[in-house]
Automatic annotation (TrEMBL):
Taxonomic path: Bacteria, Pseudomonadati, Bacteroidota, Chitinophagia, Chitinophagales
Protein name: NAD(P)H-dependent oxidoreductase
Domain named NADPH-dependent FMN reductase-like: residues: 6-134
Species the sequence originates in: Sediminibacterium roseum
UniProt cross-references to Pfam families, sorted A to Z: FMN_red
């Protein structure tokens, strides 16, 4: 049996039971036979990006995130939209990667799950393409109004959303091989 691919799943929300976290947990559950998913929970522990701190020794939280991203075979991000953009904590995490090549060529899948989400989705796509991630043909997914499609317990009840999510992850899997 082939070894499971290591995936770092990054929820863009720092809320403990966010719909974005639920989506990443659903992916981990649906693909547990193929993927070893680690959900990153340290966005709120990262210091604000400061180029003066981007040297040895790195702040410990930054060093840990970089190591996790480096060791991952691929990255999945699922984020909400805050004020028509990415949450600052997610953007901050990405900014800590800019001086490295860790994300260059790294397979990624991008999900925006928010009431509207369009502007955050555009921003996420632009930022991640700028840092050089590798996206498949169906490498991003916008889930609008996710709270009507996913229960508070994290169960995806909308069949169209579930099918779209599977299509995204199946496309992502082709990048990992």
């Amino acid at each position: 049996m082939p070894e499971k691919k290591r995936i770092l799943a990054v929820p863009g929300s720092t809320r403990s039971r966010s719909v974005n976290l639920h989506i990443l947990q659903a992916i981990a559950s649906l693909y547990e036979g193929k993927l070893a998913v680690e959900i990153y929970d340290g966005l709120d522990q990262l210091p604000h990006f400061n180029p003066d701190l981007d040297k040895d020794p790195l702040p410990p939280a930054v060093a840990s995130l970089r190591k996790k991203m480096e060791l991952a075979d691929g990255i999945v991000i699922c984020t909400p939209e805050y004020v028509f953009s990415l949450p600052g904590s997610l953007k901050n995490a990405i900014e800590w990667m800019v001086s490295t090549t860790i994300l260059t060529g790294k397979p990624a899948a991008l999900i925006t799950a928010s009431s509207s989400g369009q502007k955050a989705h555009e921003s996420l796509d632009l930022v991640m393409r700028t840092v050089g991630v590798k996206l498949g043909e169906k490498g991003s997914l916008l889930i609008q109004g996710p709270k009507t499609k996913i229960t508070e317990e994290g169960v995806i009840t909308d069949e169209t959303t579930l099918a779209s999510l599977k299509e995204l992850v199946d496309d992502f899997l082709t990048l990992l091989n």
